[in-house]
Specification:
2 domains, alpha+beta, eight-stranded mixed sheet, two-stranded antiparallel sheet, Metal Binding Protein, Guanine Nucleotide Exchange Factor, Chain A
Amino acid sequence: MELPVGYRFKPFEDELVKYYLLARVTGNPMPWNPIIECDLYDVKTPGEIFDEASNQKVWYCFTRLKKRGKRVFRRAGGGTWHGQSSAFKILDRDNNFQVIGEKKTFTFDMKNEVKKCNKWIMHEFSLVGEYEGCDLVLCKIKKEALKDDGSVSQTCWQEQEANTNNNNQVEEALQNMEAFLMNDNEEAMQRDGRLLTNGNEEAMQRDGRLLMNEYLRLITDGGIRTNDGVDKASDNNADAVQYNSGFSQ
């Protein structure tokens, strides 16, 4: 399947790890896939593997690392892939910026090469977590034309600075988000606490007034009944006494 004119295969780094490398390792289907399978650590140089004469300047490939214990051998053809930076974390933008992979940068140096017109730079993506240590990696390889005053180390240093700044920005954004959520939760808890306290106080006052009113009503009703009973009993007793007295006389 060919991409329409004007379109380019240029996924983000977390997309390369999620939708291509992880899918390739687990055997799941991948989206439209221009990534080739090749052995970068064989007898061929990058210029022999990729079409250096074409206008294309970026290639993607799956390759397997050649390990002996924890050591990785990176010789290829008459040269070697040399590491230029420590691993950078690849964060999943769609899943709370969880770490899903790592990226390392390498340059290819030919033995006994005097004049360098082009330089091959490779970004190697690997998985972490459950599939950490898997020998299958995804590589993004590009050809850089070097100027007279330029250098590969300068190019890699600039990329490393860009990656560091990007990671710092992501970490700062995460810290700001956590601080915002914590403050928001605290404010919500305080607000809810005030509502509950005010609600309880109002309810207690309301219930207290109701109880007091009921108590007063009972006292009043009791007093009325008591007074009526006493008065009526007194009147009845007086009448009875007068009646009995008159009868006896």
